From TrEMBL, chain A:
This is Putative membrane protein. The keyword Transmembrane helix applies. The chain crosses the membrane at residues 80-99. The keyword Transmembrane applies. It comes from the Bacteria. Keywords: Membrane, Transmembrane, Transmembrane helix. InterPro entries: Brnchd-chn_aa_trnsp_AzlD (IPR008407).
């Protein structure tokens, strides 16, 4: 991975982050737009979780990883602490692979 | 900023939640470092990337594209598309960086902007009081920056020893922490439309993954937002939510 790619990603990301704090005073977002943007962020995060759980490259991720993430989802809904959720997901996934399920 | 008065502003429950999220992110950061180095990237790549980019999702996405044999341009595009949401988040927490003398405000903006993440925004939006918002932002943001980068360093060093990160299930850690962050915002009354939007978006993105270049399917998910655009039906609580903060504010709040 070239240095230039990392710098480009870093610079672009920083610009995205800085726009809000910089233009906030001059540019007032209407209430409905703010609601929409907040919803958009939630939808993007759920989608990122789904694609990270279910896909690998441009194909499916197999069974072990989705199973681990499913365990995580159940624990989240039962209000388990964050670290427990993450460890359980990785452990489930690793155990299934140990049993030969990929 | 005075760190000690910031510290006192927050209740113990919030501080504990921040510590738990830091710990969970440490596990994810370590898995990122290990996956990148075990996959064949030089040691410095995940470390420098984490310091400069500091956005887990895009780091995973970019490294994933590179490890899958994709080009640098595709990797940058995938990362930036994912980070488009930070534009939204920047506006959502801009008020906490808008405070003090002009000089201090400038520095708060320049430094604080780099620390805008899903987690620090979720903690900020939990509060309405300006002092608490500011305290929640800075404590969670600085804590996460330190913990994330240390964890990536440790993971990257370990990645030279661990040959197969999949055997440890490390690839499940990142989606798991994303769900932990966002699922609570989708549960409860009045969130039906948002649930429909998120579910539709996720399905569309997963279905489009084999067809489109890496990074694009996630953006396609925004089509799911049509569900939130319709006028609320009577009895749907989403219309009466007091402010735009309602949607992610409950995220870490529900964690016990």
């Amino acid at each position: 991975m070239p240095v230039l790619a990392i710098v480009a990603l870093a610079a672009g990301t920083y610009a995205l982050r800085l726009a809000g704090p910089l233009f906030q005073g001059r540019l007032r977002l209407p209430e409905r737009l703010r609601d929409l943007l907040t919803d958009a962020a939630t939808v993007l995060l759920v989608t990122l979780a789904a694609t990270a759980a279910l896909t690998q490259g441009d194909g499916p991720a197999g069974w072990a990883r989705p199973a681990g993430v499913l365990v995580a989802a159940v624990l989240v809904l039962r209000r388990a602490p964050f670290p427990v959720v993450v460890i359980a997901a990785a452990a489930t996934c690793a155990l299934l692979r140990l049993c030969g399920l990929s | 900023m005075d760190m000690r008065s910031l510290w006192r502003t927050l209740d113990r429950g919030t501080l504990r939640d921040i510590a738990l999220v830091c710990l969970a992110d440490a596990l994810v950061g370590a898995s990122f470092g290990a996956i990148a180095v075990a996959g064949g990237l030089p040691l410095w790549v995940p470390i420098v990337m984490s310091l400069l980019v500091f956005a887990g999702g895009s780091q995973f996405a970019a490294v994933g594209v590179v490890l899958a044999g994709g080009g640098a341009l595709a990797a940058v595009a995938a990362g930036l598309i994912l980070n488009a949401r930070l534009l939204v988040f920047g506006f959502a927490v801009a008020d906490v960086l808008d405070h003090g003398t002009p000089r201090r405000r400038r520095w708060a903006r320049l430094l604080g902007a780099h620390l805008v993440t899903d987690e620090s925004v979720a903690f900020t939006l939990r509060h309405r009081d300006p002092h608490r918002r500011r305290a929640a932002f800075w404590i969670s943001a600085v804590g996460l920056f330190v913990v994330w980068n240390l964890a990536v360093l440790v993971g990257a060093l370990a990645g030279r020893v661990i040959g197969d990160t999949d055997a440890l299930g490390l690839d499940a850690a990142f989606p798991a922490v994303l769900l932990a962050l966002v699922l609570p915002a989708l549960t409860g009354p009045g969130r039906g439309r948002l649930r429909a939007a998120a579910l539709t978006g996720a399905l569309v993105a997963v279905a489009a993954t084999p067809l489109l270049p890496a990074g694009l399917p996630v953006l396609l998910a925004l089509a799911g937002l049509v569900f939130t655009l319709r006028r609320p039906a009577p009895g749907d609580g989403s219309a009466t939510e007091p402010a735009s903060e309602s949607d992610i504010q409950s995220a870490p709040q529900e964690v016990r």
